[in-house]
Amino acid sequence: MKSHINIFVLLVVLGAVIISACGSPAATEAPYMEDFAAAPEMPMQEAPASVEQPASSESEAGKIQEGSVYETGTDGNVALTTHLIIKSADMRVLVENSDVAIDRVTQIVGDTGGYIISSRVWNQPHLDGKNYKYATITIGVPVQQFERVLNRLRGLAVQVLDENASGEDVTDQYVDLQSQLTNLEATRERIKSFLDDATNVDEALRINQQLSEIERQIEEIKGRINYLQDRSAFSTITVNIEPQLPEVVIPTPTPMPTPEPEPWKPGETFDNAKKSVTRAYQNIIDILIWFFVVLVPIFAPPVLIVWLIWKFITRKPNKPS
User: How many angstroms separate the CA atoms of 256 and 260, rounded?
Assistant: First the structure.
């Protein structure tokens, strides 16, 4: 019986030794990795010339394109950035057909993965009496497609009347905001540790108020960082579309000739005066003829009758002798 107990104890000891042996590499590997991470970066040795180096995906991923942003987290590392350029352009183009040009602009936006920010279309009368369509369209396109979109918009125009492109470098602002964000996040962690060590309610409230202020600043900086990322990732282009108007020829008014004074003609004046006197006498004679031939026969008998009646009524009787 005692031998069985000894064999059982021996098996238990052997199992413990095996388990500890299996766990020892993991226990020793962690400090080795920490020491390796803390050690300064050693220069890499070049591979022998006879060995062909295959292209790695990490080298391709390490290439940074213009205007792109690569974040490495908020654990104390500043984001890896290139120059962040906010690009914008303003164009005024003369087109043959406004409707076709508007459709083409919409197609360009869809092909390049952009979006329409604002659009305004209106009609304006011309001297020929017709209305012609004008438009102003503001679009956002990826920064990689900026020059390509400008070229395609130039292709829509019969003539580019005006073009203005500009860029704003916001790299310094972005790097400063990342540094501020890192510092504020570290401060937030320290304040949280103070909050855990608070001994009373008043102290906890004061620490919590400071923590809320730090978090508000963190959110503002994150919003500004997102704004700079979005503005640098998408460029803004404003296109002013104007139709090609037909030429209208305005007739030149013919100047009126200056009238020349007529020469004095006394003989002609005498003849005109004589004719005027003759016509006047003729009119007077015509009136008398109408008066005696028409008016007297019509109005004379009634007037005579009325006069006789009036005389008969108003006569005085004869006085006796």
Answer: 12
Q: What is the C-alpha to C-alpha distance for residues 65 and 112, in angstroms, rounded to an integer?
A: 18
CA atoms within 13 A on the CB side of 5: 2
> Phi/psi at 62 (nearest 5 deg)?
-75, -10
Long-range contacts of 36-44 (CB under 8 A, 24+ apart): none
Radius of gyration of the chain (CA): 55
Q: What is the pLDDT of residue 192?
A: 83
pLDDT score for 120: 94
Q: Which parts of the chain have pLDDT scores under 50?
A: 1-2, 17, 20-81
What length does the chain have?
A: 321
Which residue in 157, 111, 116 sits closest to 138, CA to CA?
116
Query: In this structure, what token pair is assigned to residue 290?
Result: 């109408």
**Cα–Cα dist 67/82, whole Å:** 6
- Are 244 and 207 in contact, with CB atoms under 8 Å apart? no
Per DSSP, which regions of 80-206 are E strands?
Answer: 80-81, 85-95, 115-125, 131-142, 159-169
- Residue 277, C-beta contacts closer than 8 angstroms, at least 6 positions apart: none
DSSP state of 64: -
Cα first-last separation, the chain: 211
Contact status, residue 241 vs residue 218, Cβ threshold 8 Å: no
> Tokens representing 13?
């000891």
Task: Tell me the residue type at 272.
Answer: N
Write the DSSP assignment of 260-312 as a string of letters: PPPPP-HHHHHHHHHHHHHHHHHHHHHHHHHIIIIIHHHHHHHHHHHHHHHHH
Distance CA(232)–CA(177), nearest Å, equals 15
Task: Say if CB 288 and CB 296 are below 8 A apart.
Answer: no
Place of tokens 């022998």: 48
Task: Calculate the average pLDDT of the chain.
Answer: 75
Q: How far is CA 84 from CA 70, 155, 247, in A?
A: 12, 28, 47
